[in-house]
């Protein structure tokens, strides 16, 4: 499983000070974040799309083309994955917004 959280220190005011320092370093780190004047919401409204557009304008995760292979006098059709001339989908709006992976909240149902 890959880590999907942000690794940069000082980007999130609610990030833990996991660096060996005591509570003083965590407070100092949060004070530095607050001094920038940047308020970070706990929600994610957009994400990077994982699909691609091909030359025809079709949208998919993967594209294949059929090729005819002649082997021992017999024609066979094979699928070959297309890697060229694909355009990334770009930014996708999330509806509804998601909670950020680094937001320290425990969700439970009563």
From TrEMBL:
Q: Name one Pfam family in it.
A: TUSC2
> Region (Disordered): which ranges?
1-22
Q: Which domain of life is it from?
A: Eukaryota
Question: Coiled-coil ranges per the record?
Answer: none
Q: Which terms does the UniProt entry file under GO BP? A: inflammatory response; regulation of mitochondrial membrane potential
A Gene Ontology cellular component where this protein is annotated is: mitochondrion
UniProt name for this protein: Low quality protein: tumor
Organism classification? Eukaryota, Metazoa, Chordata, Craniata, Vertebrata
């Amino acid at each position: 499983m890959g880590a999907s959280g942000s690794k940069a220190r000082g980007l999130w005011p609610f990030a833990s000070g996991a660096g060996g320092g005591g509570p003083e370093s965590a407070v100092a780190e949060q004070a530095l974040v607050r001094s920038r004047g940047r308020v970070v919401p706990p929600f994610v409204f957009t994400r990077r799309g994982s699909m691609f557009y091909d030359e025809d304008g079709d949208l998919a995760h993967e594209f294949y083309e059929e090729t005819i292979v002649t082997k021992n006098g017999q024609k066979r059709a094979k699928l070959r994955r297309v890697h060229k001339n694909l355009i990334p989908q770009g930014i996708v709006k999330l509806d509804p917004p998601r909670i950020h992976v680094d937001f320290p909240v425990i969700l439970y149902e009563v």
